[in-house]
Write a structure and sequence with these properties.
alpha/beta; about 575 residues; globular; binds phosphoenolpyruvate; binds magnesium ion; TIM Barrel; eight-stranded mixed β-sheet; Glucose Oxidase, domain 1; about 45% helix; 24 helices
Length: about 575
Amino acid sequence: MPEAYAEFIRLATKLENHYKDMQDMEFTIEDKVLYFLQTRNGKRTAQAALKIAVDLVEEGLCTKEEALMKVDPKQLDQLLHPNFDVEALAAAKVYGSALPASPGAAAGQVYFNADDAVAAKKRGERVILVRLETSPEDIEGMDAAQGILTARGGMTSHAAVVARGMGTCCISGCGEIKINEATKTFTLGGKTIAEGEFISLDGSTGKIYLEDIKTVDPEISGDFSKFMSWADEVRTLKVRANADSPKDVINAVEFGAEGVGLCRTEHMFFEEDRLPKIRQMIVSNTVAEREAALAELIPFQKADFKGMYKALAGKPMTVRLLDPPLHEFLPQEEGDIRELAKEMGLTFEALKETVESLHEFNPMLGHRGCRLAVTYPEIAVMQTRAIIEAAVEVIAEEGIDVIPEIMIPLAGEVKELAYVKNVVVETAEKVIAEKGVKLKYLVGTMIEIPRAALTADLIAAEAEFFSFGTNDLTQMTFGYSRDDAGAFLEDYYKKSILESDPFARLDQTGVGQLVEMAVVKGRSARPDIKLGICGEHGGDPSSIEFCHRVGLDYVSCSPFRVPIARLAAAQAVLNNR
Ligand code: PEP
Ligand code: MG
């Protein structure tokens, strides 16, 4: 039927030209006459979406700006992480689901603690780490895993934030799972899985499968960089990454990050060779003992900062001073305390007493952030020295520009900020004088306590930049624990009290007001103040649009979300013209 075929081509082209998009068309031919029944924009995978967008521009059918609006930023996740084989997935049974905390697909054998996970990886196995919740001590096990499943925890819990940073699939807050650590088994949906058995996780949907499903690795085509360069031409928000190691920074720069918006320095302390030193600092009884322990950490911090500055080649980096409560660096179980006491040459009773003295009912509201530096200024001294010495050395060795941005976390009262800032500035000036060089550096703060937002004009008198820590700001504005709220938020969605997880998508009505107020007050006191966001919302498209509207200078998110943020920032410009 050559005539019907020619007519089909003519009309298909006409429809595609008219809608300026790939069409999903239904037609029929009756008595050699062609009839079109329906047409609509075709559904597409992420790869196809990019190809279509680029082809439409190259064929002159639409402008680059129109093409940018045709790709959903969140879809880019599909391009950057492994996915399940479509046919294998279709045949698999879902046994449960929980929070899609970090995207991608993973399949592997189950292990219940970090040591077993690391050992299994060494044997060449694919590993899924299953935990009640993760803590900084689990970091090496998380690193060894293809995927992480936790029974507790929300979208900004330790597991979620760290997995997202690593680009590792994670499902968190699975209340239905019953883990038995003693027998190394878990039960879900009526089935019991023992250590070493296979399960699969879809971190993009939160679905859990109790079998080994084939995965396919992501592929990035040439269209990707072309398309992303169009986004870069349009956006006005800068995009930085949250990164804590030279390796993360290299990754982030490859994804297009224009700097580091948050280096969580505590993450540098959990490696095997560093943890004993920070523990030594914690059990110290005098300032001199603490200073001696901290002095041993300087070389490690400095080497990491140097590696990061070099990888950034002149792009800015915000380094945050130590933030978590100190108990996170010590074991809590009696057996582990006993073992560590032996290693450290302490009595069990002495170490147990330290652990107990650090116990707090609400550690997230406790002795953390800048409060640590108020009690132990020597920690801030050590970290500032490492930040400044590293910068001076990298400038001399590499001839690149480095302007360190030192960030003081969790300030709520300008005087506490001023106190810690003073420690930082005195130390920085001392190091600069010792080295006999000139160095520009900035000192700023996070806005993550409602009181800091309410008094942002006063805070800005002491801070050269603000970075909105919307994880804590959300926690403290709603009064929801970022670690546990997942357990009841599901009821809030079901009963239409909340539309979405405020830890994933910024609550513009409430938390957003605080951000907007702090922007206005901050700029009124210091017109050239630099403003960014480094909470997890910095990688969420609708939150990024909000950041654009309220006039932030940059967003910062995990390296794997940098492309999403670049596209979302471009769409924010186009949506708000
Ligand atoms: C925040 O609170 O938003 C933040 C970035 O800091 P952290 O997640 O480390 O508390
Ligand atoms: Mg915080």
